[in-house]
Amino acid sequence: HAIVTTGQKATDTLRAHFAVAEPKVGQYVDFEFEGRNMRLYRMPSSSRAYPLALEKKAAFYRTMLECELDI
Fold first, then answer.
1. Hey, which CATH number is domain 2-69, 3.30.450, 2.40.50, 3.10.180, 3.40.50?
2. What's the Cα-to-Cα distance from 63 to each of 25, 27, 38, 53, rounded to whole Å?
3. What pairs with residue 31 in β-bridges?
4. What is the reported pTM?
């Protein structure tokens, strides 16, 4: 069970709601919600104001999907 955010505002909103620490971009923090272990992933912003090479963005998503889908 995981929640994925892109960008600071979405991350801040979920952090406030679930009272969890802020993960670094491309990483996650574990938390518990209604007796379930969860992960909050923070992915790179898709905004053009915060450019990052597509290959680097893809690497973050690949790592997250491999972890969550046990690939």
1. 3.10.180
2. 12, 9, 17, 16
3. 38
4. 0.85
